[in-house]
Amino acid sequence: MKKAGPFFAGHEEMYDGETRIEADALAKRVSELASKLDRPESTAKLNEISFLNHIILQKEFSWTRLVGVLEAAPASTSLA
Q1: Directed axis angle between helix 17-37 and helix 40-58, to 10°?
Q2: Which label site among 17, 45, 76, 80 has the fewest CB atoms less than 10 Å from its CB?
Q3: pLDDT tens, 17-73?
C-alpha cells in the first residue's frame, strides 16, 4: 500500500486511489513551496514583509481617538 502524504498519515483507509494521488500531488507541491521559502532570498523578503507590516501596525489610524478629539473640540470649530 502506498503511503499518503504527511497530512493524511494514519487515515489512508479513508482515501480512494484518485484522492490519494491528488493528496500526494498536493503534498509534493507543499514540499516544493517550502523549499522555495527556505532560500536566503525568500527569507530576506519575508523578513522585509514582516518589518513593513510591523511599521504599518504602528502607524494605524485610530478612529476612536479622532472622534474623541472632535467631541472635545468647541462647537464653533470647523473642519473646513
Answers
A1: 80
A2: 80
A3: 788 899 999 999 999 998 888 888 888 888 999 988 888 888 777 788 888 888 888
How many other C-beta atoms are found inside a 10 Å radius of the C-beta of residue 4? 20
Phi, psi of 74 (to 5 degrees): -60, 150
Which cell is 78 given? 470647523
Mean pLDDT score across all residues of the chain? 79
Phi-psi region at 9: left, alpha or beta (left = phi > 0; alpha = psi -120 to 50): beta
Q: Scanning the structure block, which residue is given the C-alpha cell 514583509? A: 49
Amino acid (1-letter code) at residue 52: L
Is the CB of residue 35 less than 8 Å from the CB of residue 50? Answer: no
Strand, helix or coil for residue 2:
coil
CA-based diameter of the chain, in Å?
Answer: 80
Type of residue numbered 70: L
pTM attached to this predicted model: 0.39
